Amino acid sequence: MSCIEVTEDVRQYLRKPTFDNWQWDDSEMLILLQQMYLDLGLTTKFQIELPVLQQWLFDVYRHYNPVPFHNFKHCFMVAQMMYGLTWLINLPEVLDDLDILVLLTSAICHDLDHPGYNNAYQINARTELAITYNDISPLENHHCSVAFEILGKPNANIFRNMAQESYRKLREGMIKCILATDMAKHSEILNNFKSITPNFDFTNKEHKSLLMMILIKVSDISNEARPMDVAEPWLDCLLQEFFNQSDVEKLEGLPVAPFMDREKVSKSTSQIGFIKFVLLPLFEALGNLFPSVEKSIIMPVRAALQYYTDMHNAQEELKHRRSSKDKGRKTSQQNGSMNGEKTEQANS
């Protein structure tokens, strides 16, 4: 990786929310993650040696599983959106260098060793993770634990030259950010953030902490802010992971969430409510503090909502037409049968 140079065009493209991951393979994405640390000056500011950064990235890559959605490509896309927001909002103007390091590193680590089955499954199936973490955000706690296990290796510890107090703050920040990706905490975090936005104070530690949680949450569920030819394949991956889980839940006699049941959900129905009640309120809350995100990530989400609404309406119209044809066919058959009976009666 150290011998490969990234062109200026690619470096600029890497900063955009329109970035298309499907055009890049895993080895190239590892190089691009390295470039993010270089272009933000994090390697210099925190004395991160390039061979150590490369080893850390490779170890992170090896700890993502080949599941349909929560895999290394998802890790990259979350990190890429975080990186893009860093430039779009100009976060270095309002956050410390350590905060930027926390955000990017947390984005890369946020789903480490994800098994492809969510917290509800872990808890209902009484898995080892649920038992270990007492049913409290078992996956997010595990992702965080794996992150620091990797960082515990001397040859992969990108923070080994960091002062002890800085490391303490960094660890605290990463834990908060990664645990914030548990959607069970979504409403609480969003409502807390909205309550402080009118009087937001960038010198207030709690305010900054909430902002960082919002930023990683936005990055984590940002696919619908991307062009549809990038976003829609990700929805296919997500639904496949959902269906895999619900199939297992049915076999094991566990509760099945309707939005994960292949017999009850479609692309359009899965997205309309999610965009309307989860994505847009979250993105608009960030936009209230940083209006610069309106065009780049909020307008595309509104367009995605319209896209799936139109898809749903077209599907419902098609169902209605088929239903009308079926009714007409049955009526015709019934009339034909009745006419036949009358003819037989008349002949007899």
Record keyword descriptors for this entry.
348 residues; mainly alpha; globular; 69% helix
What's the quick description here?
The chain is mainly alpha-helical and about 350 residues long.
Structural class determined from secondary elements? mainly alpha
Q: Tell me the helix content.
A: 55-70%
* Poorly predicted runs of 5 or more residues: none
Number of helices: 15
Distance between the termini: 92 Å
**On the 0-100 scale, what is the average pLDDT?**
94
Work out the strand percent.
under 5%
Tertiary shape: globular
- In total, how many beta strands? 0
Taking all Cα atoms into account, the compactness measure Rg is 25 Å
Q: How many strands, what sense, and barrel or not for the largest sheet?
A: none
Order of helices and strands: HHHHHHHHHHHHHHH
Describe this structure in words.
With 348 residues, the protein is mostly helical. The chain is 69% helix and 0% strand. It is built from 15 helices and no strands. The protein is globular, with a radius of gyration of 25 Å. The model has no long low-confidence stretch (mean pLDDT 94).
Per-chain topology:
Blueprint: H1 8-13, H2 26-39, H3 42-45, H4 50-62, H5 72-89, H6 97-109, H7 119-124, H8 128-132, H9 138-151, H10 164-179, H11 186-196, H12 205-220, H13 228-252, H14 267-289, H15 293-347
Helix pairs in contact: 2-5, 5-6, 5-12, 6-10, 6-12, 9-10, 10-12, 11-12, 11-14, 12-14, 14-15
